[in-house]
TrEMBL record:
Name of the protein in question: Signaling peptide TAXIMIN 1
Amino acid sequence: MCCCCCSEECECRPLGFLLGLPFAFLALLLSLIGVIIWIVGLLLTCICPCCLCVTIIVELALGMIKAPFLVMKWFTEQIPC
């Protein structure tokens, strides 16, 4: 049953949200590791800005930080109304 009765596209998908919670928790742990990598990478970039590999690692860490949100969005989009 859809919680939005008037529109064709349902935005509220509790089953997808519940199924995605364990995976979002794992992604949250990865994002905590990403925060540590991001902080260390920023410090290294400040010390030596010529290192291109450090900026790539910082970008990867930012992707890890965004992971829980992307996982939950993907799971809620996969479950139909």
